[in-house]
Amino acid sequence: MSVPISLFQVVLAAALMLLSALLSWRLRLGLGRDILTAGTRMTVQLLLVGLILGWVFALRSPWPILGIGLVMTVLAAQAAVGRTRGRYPGIFLDAFAAIFGSSFVLTGLMLGGILQIRPWFEAQYAVPILGMVLGNTLTGVSLALDRFTSDLDHNRSAIEERLALGATRWEAARGTVRAAVRTGMLPTLNSMAVMGIVSLPGMMTGQILAGASPAVAVRYQIVIMFVLAASSALGSLGAVLLAYRALLDSRDRLRGERLKAPR
Fold first, then answer.
1. What stretches pass through the bilayer (predicted)?
2. Residue 155, CA distances (Å) to 46, 172, 173, 238, 251 in order
């Protein structure tokens, strides 16, 4: 059974942020405002989510759940694009399509096929799992898009030279695509490699604190990590291929004018 936490205990934990603020001040890192903003924003957002989830978990129709998932996906796409230095027209829609496609498909597969939740839209399972998948996928998509646009701008001359010599757009940009997708997949793979040895993941820890047996918590964590890895791979690949299509057209031309170079 989980140990209840009072608001006073939350305030005590929040006081630990003073260590970060003190470090920023002492080393003149200039992060004091960022630390205060991040801590306040996180607290407000989570308190609101805590209030909303009680209502969400009582829903018995799939449409509100899907609507909530769609809003979460839009916010995830905005976050992914916001972390990308290189931009081009339509990058938000590409990020949204990649995140939506990979996250919803794999969340649906996990709920209906692996866990066999009935009904599949049971909010208690659907919303938290979709949230975890979206958070992981947006990181992969953001890193992949950032790497692809950066490399495309950096290697513009070499790619245009290959195209001028008769290479197709895929032949000219294949290495750039591969490097970008690899970059998007690496964080999840690195996390999986040390999980259980160096770190205890959040889902497993939360279930154990809530009273679940370690064996059940471990099985849940293994399943979600495989889903996260697949979603990260599909999301990264989808986002990079959509960016590839936008920046290298069907006539085998690099459309460099569409790319706002990374700063």
1. 6-23, 35-57, 63-81, 93-117, 123-145, 192-210, 222-248
2. 42, 10, 9, 21, 19
